[in-house]
């Protein structure tokens, strides 16, 4: 028997304060768990389940809670999609595999497409994940331009901190240019060893 979830119990509904759904938040939490427990276990089944869940996840906005302005609704949906794609990139980075690099690259392209559709990016976490996967100087410039826009519009200290972390990570990646990039784990680098703020 099929049930129609009420807005209060619908985990795919976009939460305004987060910018994405509770279902996606749960997936990110589970990816963090896998990351923190590697390489003590293999997670083939969990990986497949998480990827499948992310691929079929359709987040939606409750228009009764938001303005009926179509531009605002489009921005809300695009922001949630940006988070979903970032979670896919993150998953494929946490669980490396012979086929994951190519798939991750395709998600990076999708991530930039969504980023370009946003008038202003207001979400540091997906931007950070995307920045860690840049594949060209042009993409890096685009990330820096987005950070400049965020700084001008959000006026919060996090943007400066995030920019410094990203630029430090890029320098480390450049120094390891001859190393297999598929094994790069940005969460283990020195740039994140200081007391940096958690950001969503």
Automatic annotation (TrEMBL):
Its main location: nucleus. Pfam families: Fungal_trans_2. Keywords: Nucleus. GO terms for biological process: positive regulation of transcription by RNA polymerase II. One of its GO terms (molecular function) is transcription cis-regulatory region binding. One of its GO terms (cellular component) is nucleus. InterPro entries: Fun_TF (IPR021858). It is found in: Nucleus. The keyword Amino-acid biosynthesis does not apply. The keyword Nucleus applies. This is C6 finger domain protein.
């Amino acid at each position: 028997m099929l049930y129609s979830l009420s807005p209060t119990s619908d985990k795919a509904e976009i939460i305004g304060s987060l910018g994405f759904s509770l279902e996606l938040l749960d997936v990110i939490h589970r990816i963090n768990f896998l990351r923190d427990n590697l390489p003590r276990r293999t997670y083939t089944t969990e990986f497949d389940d998480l990827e499948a869940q992310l691929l079929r996840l359709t987040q939606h906005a409750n228009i009764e809670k938001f303005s009926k302005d179509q531009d605002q609704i489009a921005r809300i949906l695009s922001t949630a999609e940006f988070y979903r794609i970032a979670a896919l990139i993150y998953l494929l980075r946490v669980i490396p595999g012979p086929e994951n690099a190519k798939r991750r690259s395709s998600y990076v392209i999708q991530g930039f497409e969504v980023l370009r559709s946003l008038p202003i990016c207001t979400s540091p976490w997906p931007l950070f994940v995307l920045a860690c996967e840049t594949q060209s100087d042009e993409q890096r410039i685009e990330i820096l331009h987005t950070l400049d826009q965020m700084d001008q519009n959000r006026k919060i200290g996090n943007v400066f901190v995030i920019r410094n972390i990203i630029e430090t990570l890029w320098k480390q990646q450049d120094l390891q240019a001859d190393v297999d990039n598929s094994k790069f784990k940005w969460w283990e680098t020195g740039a994140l060893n200081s007391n940096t703020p958690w950001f969503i």
